[in-house]
């Protein structure tokens, strides 16, 4: 592989950054995928691996460059060491697109040119590994680029991973059409592009006529002082001052991840007073907090105030069941692998609250004033199967709280918001997202924002949110739809190859019948 090919693969991968939020150039993905296919068309398996690796290096280096903000400001490492840590992450993540292209080309020894039909399946295999290995890092899946395009209408049926498969199928059809000048490939690409326009008409999601008045509170507390013990009471007062004027007029009030920085049970008396005030005004507050139980810390959401429409089912007390404990922890930020080795090396590996324990994978919905909310804290919203497994048919809203203050004015928070919107699209439920300094927003079950609070501002966002009924296909079968679609495309490739081995099979059979 020459330097021009390496550079082309690197630039193709790097250009994908513009297809994600906040740049929103959704059209760019297909030309990039077509370009990657064209670049790899004559490569050997080892050559395809290298092309995929350079493509991944450009893709993740540009797309995840925002991580440097947190490492530089809070990691306590020299600049060369910070760059080295990021480089190690990018080099690791680049293995997965390299694997996908390698597996495609490896199957050419049996399938010949028809092996290109295996690529959606090999890509899905590689991306599934990326989302699982070493607790997983599924950020920047290609499907997220289409959250705001008509192709996003596939999400309730096939999920974000299914959109990725559709993108690859369209790109393959376009390349085959250009190479073979056969109209059937152009027609297949056209059909895949047109079908999603009709899908909203088939949506099983319908309004019930019920709605909740929701307030999302954004405190805008600086990360550099957030965990300072002298800041605990001041931060709590910031959130209370933004919330109390709205107690009487709202059903649900949401504070972001770890808005209460003094852990339970050391704040039980204060939380009980807040609970009583909420009950008196017939409203509910859900807040992020650190829970300390049995010598273990949990990143938690708790419910205070009115948990049912009329009578209190379970008054607040430390350890009450109306809470959600984070399961999918962020490496380094919330747990440190090989911590005995890594913690002494640098402040990066000894950040505040980086020794959390995991909550259960599946947990009961939060009860808030008669509404049911499926919880996800920060990074968890990027794990579609976990969110799906916690959304029940009785779930009214998806609730995610976060603290993206670590990443400043970078494009990271915009990507995070885009990921959260995809969960609303997939599962057909409105989504509430409260963060410390943005992006806080309310999203309808079709992925559209109903309201957004300005970033880097202490404010409260008030929105009426409908309750819906119905269950999307993705909610019923999860990523199985994407696997079946990718498998179907692969099967077509196998059948085309078999047809090339027996070109006269149909003719011979007809003659025998005569």
From TrEMBL:
Endpoints of the signal sequence: none
SUPFAM superfamilies recorded: Carbon-nitrogen hydrolase
Cellular location(s): Cell membrane
Give the E.C. number(s): 2.3.1.269
What's one Pfam family here?
A: LNT_N
Q: Is NADP found in the keyword set?
A: no
- One GO biological process term: lipoprotein biosynthetic process
Q: Name one GO molecular function term.
A: N-acyltransferase activity
Q: Which InterPro entries match?
A: Apolipo_AcylTrfase, C-N_Hydrolase, C-N_Hydrolase_sf, LNT_N
Determine if Chloroplast is one of this entry's keywords: no
Query: Which GO cellular component does the record give, naming just one?
Result: plasma membrane
Per the record, the pathway is: Protein modification; lipoprotein biosynthesis (N-acyl transfer)
List keywords of the entry alphabetically.
Acyltransferase, Cell membrane, Lipoprotein, Membrane, Transferase, Transmembrane, Transmembrane helix
Entry membrane topology = Multi-pass membrane protein
Q: Which domain of life is it from?
A: Bacteria
CN hydrolase domain location:
217-467
TM regions (residue ranges): 20-39, 51-71, 83-104, 111-134, 154-178, 185-203, 480-502
What is its EC class? transferase
Function description: Catalyzes the phospholipid dependent N-acylation of the N-terminal cysteine of apolipoprotein, the last step in lipoprotein maturation.
- Family, similarity comment: Belongs to the CN hydrolase family. Apolipoprotein N-acyltransferase subfamily.
Name of the protein in its database record: Apolipoprotein N-acyltransferase
> Native species of this protein?
Pseudidiomarina woesei
């Amino acid at each position: 592989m020459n330097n021009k090919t390496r550079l082309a693969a690197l630039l193709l991968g790097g250009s994908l950054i513009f297809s994600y939020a906040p740049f929103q150039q959704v059209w760019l993905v297909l030309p990039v995928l077509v370009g990657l296919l064209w670049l790899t068309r004559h490569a050997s398996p080892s050559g395809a691996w290298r092309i995929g690796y350079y493509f991944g290096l450009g893709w993740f280096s540009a797309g995840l460059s925002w991580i440097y903000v947190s490492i530089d400001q809070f990691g306590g490492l020299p600049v060369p060491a910070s760059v080295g840590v990021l480089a190690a992450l990018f080099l690791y993540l680049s293995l997965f697109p390299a694997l996908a292209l390698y597996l495609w080309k490896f199957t050419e020894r049996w399938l010949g040119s028809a092996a290109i039909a295996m690529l959606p399946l090999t890509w899905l295999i590689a991306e599934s590994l990326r989302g699982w290995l070493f607790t997983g890092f599924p950020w920047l899946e290609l499907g997220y680029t289409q959250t705001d395009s008509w192709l996003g209408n596939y999400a309730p049926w096939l999920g974000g991973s299914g959109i990725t498969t559709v993108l690859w199928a369209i790109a393959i059809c376009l390349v085959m059409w250009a190479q073979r000048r056969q109209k059937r490939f152009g027609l297949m690409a056209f059909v895949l592009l047109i079908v999603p326009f009709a899908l909203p008409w088939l949506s099983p999601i319908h309004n019930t006529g019920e709605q909740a008045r929701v307030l999302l509170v954004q405190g805008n507390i600086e990360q550099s002082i957030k965990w300072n013990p002298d800041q605990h009471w001041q931060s709590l007062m910031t959130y209370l001052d933004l919330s109390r004027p709205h107690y009487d007029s709202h059903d649900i009030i949401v504070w972001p991840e770890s808005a209460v920085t003094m852990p339970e049970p050391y704040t039980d008396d204060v939380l009980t007073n807040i609970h009583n005030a909420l009950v008196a005004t017939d409203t509910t507050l859900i807040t992020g907090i650190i829970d300390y139980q049995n010598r273990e810390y949990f990143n938690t959401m708790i419910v205070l105030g009115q948990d049912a429409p009329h009578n209190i089912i379970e008054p607040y007390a430390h350890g009450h069941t109306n809470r959600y404990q984070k399961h999918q922890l962020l490496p380094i930020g919330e747990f440190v692998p090989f911590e005995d080795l890594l913690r002494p090396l640098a402040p990066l590996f000894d950040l505040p609250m980086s020794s959390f324990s995991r909550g259960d994978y599946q947990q009961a919905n939060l009860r808030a004033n008669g509404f049911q909310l499926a919880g996800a804290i920060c990074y968890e919203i990027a794990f579609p199967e976990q969110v799906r497994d916690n959304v029940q048919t009785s779930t009214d809203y998806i609730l995610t709280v976060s603290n993206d203050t670590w990443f400043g004015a970078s494009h990271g928070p915009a990507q995070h918001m885009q990921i959260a919107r995809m969960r609303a699209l997939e599962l057909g439920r409105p989504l509430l997202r409260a963060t410390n300094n943005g992006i806080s927003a309310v999203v309808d079950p079709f992925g559209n924002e109903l309201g957004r609070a300005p970033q880097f501002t202490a404010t409260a966002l008030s929105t009426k949110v409908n309750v819906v009924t119905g269950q999307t296909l993705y909610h019923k079968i999860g990523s199985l739809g994407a696997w079946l679609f990718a498998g179907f495309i692969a099967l077509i490739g196998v059948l085309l190859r078999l047809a090339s081995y027996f070109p006269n099979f149909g003719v011979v059979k007809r003659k025998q019948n005569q």
